[in-house]
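Below is a concrete protein record.
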Amino acid sequence: FAMTYPGVYWNITTLSQVLFDAAFLRNTLFAKLREFQISTGKPVFIGEMGMYKPQTGGVEYLGDQLDIIKDYGWHFAFWDWRRGPGADWNIEKFKDTDDLHWKRVLSEFHAPPVPKMTSPANEIIVPANPTFTWDSLTAFTTYDIEISMLYGSRLDVFTVNDIQNSSYTLSGTSLVDGQTYSWKVRAKNPGGETENASAWSLPQLFTVGPTQSPNNKTITSKENSLTQNYPNPFNPSTSISYAIAENSLVKLTVYDMLGREVADLVNQQQLSGNHSAVFNASHLASGVYIYRLEAVPLNGKQGFSQIKRMILIK
């Protein structure tokens, strides 16, 4: 945290050996700090709160201190918790489930922020063994990821727990070609309690399929082109790939056989190159649909337009 803590630096380790009384701590020892916080609106930092067992007076006393600090929204640190000579000072005690002092401390840890998902981006085509990535927080944060078939049952949902870093490659699992899935992730602090976990991120969608055109030839950006959607027939989602030769105003629109517009997939300026869009027809009836690509170059050159058909089977 990039914060400045004005005021007096408090060392409560020595005081903790002789003033083991929760009411005195709250109403006398910490009362002046509380007045300072209220009058100035400044953050309060409590330093050198000893974790070494002979100093703390036991788990009950440690809990009294933490309750006060958390009630007031203060920050705190443990004296030399990484470099001290005794095992009870070390942050590695996170892993010691029998250490009641650490369990008490960890129960107070706030949930980390919801991770920001980075890849795969929403509504794209991915291979059968995709790699999921999100932003990293701290070395002691772990993550859970949940993947589910968009229109499947609860049997089509699986969760991978306690991932140690900010990426996970799916392997040994059969994702169905042509199916659309959602994925989401959450972060967890080491406390192990429900309140130590963040909320789930908002789910993003991906469809399993080839990342190149079906004939295994990559579309170039030297000319405008519109490929056949994949999969086709499809249910309920399919991917449409296209290429534009010039920076253009691009529209990709889907119509039913009566000429009524049913989806506006793209309507924006895009750079020359390869692009794709996912068409989700979960709300539409089975049948034949038409998709149309229009690209109007920003440099005034002649525009491009092409249509193709696709089949939705439910």
Observations:
- The chain has three domains: 13-106, 117-208, 225-312.
